[in-house]
Description:
By secondary structure, the protein is α+β, with helices and mostly antiparallel strands. It has two domains: about 5-95, Methane Monooxygenase Hydroxylase, Chain G, domain 1 (Up-down Bundle), CATH 1.20.58; about 110-345, Alpha-Beta Plaits (2-Layer Sandwich). The chain has eight helices and eleven strands. It has helices spanning about 10-25, 35-70, 75-95, 120-140, 170, 260-290, 325-330, 335-345; strands at about 110-115, 140-150, 155-165, 175-185, 195-205, 220-225, 240-245, 250-255, 300-305, 315, 320-325. The strands form two sheets. An eight-stranded mixed sheet has the order 2-3-1-5-4-9-10-11. It has a three-stranded antiparallel sheet with strand order 6-7-8, covered by helices on one side. The protein starts with 10 loop residues before the first helix and ends in a 5-residue tail after the last helix.
Amino acid sequence: MLIIYGGAFDVAVKLEQITALEKESAAPEFWQDAPRAQKVMRELNHLRDQVAVWQKLSNHLAETRELAELGDEELHEELTREVSALQKEVKELEFRTLFAGEYDKEDAFLAIHAGAGGTEAQDWAEMLQRMFIRWAEQHNFSVEIVDYSAGDEAGIKSCLMAIRGDYAYGRLKSERGVHRLVRISPYDASSRRHTSFAKVEVWPDVAGEIEIEIDEKDLRIDRFRASGAGGQHVQKNETAVRITHLPTGIIVSCQNQRSLTQNMQVAMNILKTQLFERERRKQEQEVAALKGEDVDAAWGSQIRSYVLHPYKLVKDHRTLHEVGNAQAVLDGRLDDFMEAYLRYRVGQPA
């Protein structure tokens, strides 16, 4: 029997929601409206996953309680391990309660753009790409490189990744902003210290859940050959596509699919999500301005600094959370920064 109720993860309420969605999905006409059906199934699977986590914790807690009630000294070491495992599970679930945003549970698109500075900035952009891929791998998230522009000599000018996993957007939204690197340049013969910048953009993958009308006359569509890292051609034909939304200046490219039609569809979906996110953030900023609150920093004002010389430190300038093991962060250990940001957003101590 479930023993965990209330709060952001009220199991009883979610079980009722699951029952209602299961009833809806069993109706004969359910798949006649495919977009609606897909949305319902995504929500149903998400709720099932949430409840499964709580059921697992509830069962684990009951088993540990039974073990403790035996009062056997020989089981002390095993009991200690079980309590430690429970504490870890509870901490993870407490972390999940911080995902209060409407789209936090969605998959995410993450884009990286090298700042001014040529090879230095482009190398830093590629280091960030590696960092986010490592982080995603550690969480068993899937990563798909949707678009990629190689650097002139090293690194990348930009990249766009689709990251899919449990609360991907809710976790990654903390990374939106300018990231600053301070290091001894490997490209400087005089071994001088350099400061590099790269901008990270993050938005939720909600193309299947929103209705946005885009006028064809507002689009400029360019076709080109897809290429990978280093400039080698992946396709001999012009299968890659670049869409420019003229009223906003938003540019979206896709080159990872096998056909022009597939790349066009993916690019249009990404454009829809960007337009949606643009409008959503505009509304948030208007509300924040009315409240007299600060809004996210613009380009050129970093959210986080990664210092590799003369000392090693990674510091988030919003939450003031910092760690001395900079290499571990660059290897994908970002969860502490993400949690500190989420707590900062809801006013809890970081």
